[in-house]
What does this fold into?
Amino acid sequence: MSLKLDWRFKTFEALTNIELYEILQLRNEVFVVEQRCCFLDLDDKDQKSQHLSGYYNGKLMAFSRIVPPGVSYEFPSIGRIVVSGKGRGMGYGVELLNESIAKVEAIYGKCIIRIGAQLYLKRFYESFHFFQSSDIYLEDEIEHIEMTRQIQ
It folds into this structure.
């Protein structure tokens, strides 16, 4: 598979001011404005995480953060998974998940990965071997589930 996006993978401390601004801007565009969700995105997990940013022609199109075990869950997790509305339907989400899983495994080895997923994306995550591992719960008025990926 040839990559469509130019990937950057950095610790919080290594992010430039511009990169951090672009990340927060993308997360706000999608999670707050597009999904009409009033929530506190800044949750003190970014500082502990590593950040995967996918750019196309210099524009941030996809992002996730790799959260260490013990911060969100007992296992490593992938959080704040987001693709720009301008990049949907171009395979960026698939590329983002593949890159995110590869980064988790590069850091922690083959391991269990857990995510908190919006329910409507369940089938998408199942295509990456995640399975539902909790009941449905409301987070910021959006139905979510925990999903777990066993060691592959």
About this structure: The first strand starts at residue 6 and ends at 11.
